[in-house]
Amino acid sequence: MFVNFMDYKLRQKSAKLIEVDRFFPSSKTCSCCGHIVDSLPLNIREWDCLNCKTHHDRDSNAALNIRNEGIRIIHFGGGNPVSAEGACLRPDNRDGERASG
């Protein structure tokens, strides 16, 4: 119902709804270098990328990855995901649990 509502509202503004695959690893993918962690339980709210050492807030990182994937789908018509580029996210708040891998 939410997706239908968003699609309706976007069409009113001559915009387009882009749906990202529900299994896209948005939370587990580093928005800086594209590295994907093997496991990221829901109780882990912040994590550090093992590849580039960037610190991520889980939700902000996922939102950025979903945005980048939507843009990629629009420009390249879907296909295999590519690494996010030039979008390092380094929040100052480092409270909470962290993943190591």
In short:
This protein has 101 residues and is an alpha+beta fold. It has a domain at 46-101.
Describe this structure as you would to a colleague.
The protein is an alpha+beta fold. It has a domain at 46-101. It contains 2 helices and 3 strands; from the N terminus they run H-E-E-H-E. It has helices at residues 2-12, 58-76; strands spanning 46-48, 55-57, 98-99. Strands 2-1-3 form a 3-stranded mixed sheet. A hairpin with a 6-residue loop joins strand 1 and strand 2.
H/E element sequence: HEEHE
Q: What is the first-to-last residue Cα distance?
A: 36 Å
How much beta, percentage-wise? 5-15%
Round the Cα radius of gyration to an integer and report it.
Answer: 15 Å
In spatial order, strands of the major sheet run: 2-1-3
> Helix count, per DSSP?
2
Shape: elongated
Structural class: alpha+beta
Largest sheet: 3 strands, mixed
Please tell me the overall pLDDT.
83
**Strand element count:** 3
Task: Provide the helix percentage.
Answer: 25-40%
Low-confidence stretches: 82-87, 89-98
Secondary structure layout:
Blueprint: H1 2-12, E1 46-48, E2 55-57, H2 58-76, E3 98-99
Parallel strand pairs: 1-3
Antiparallel strand pairs: 1-2
Task: Based on the model shown, name its key terms.
single chain, 101 residues, alpha+beta, three-stranded mixed sheet, 30% helix
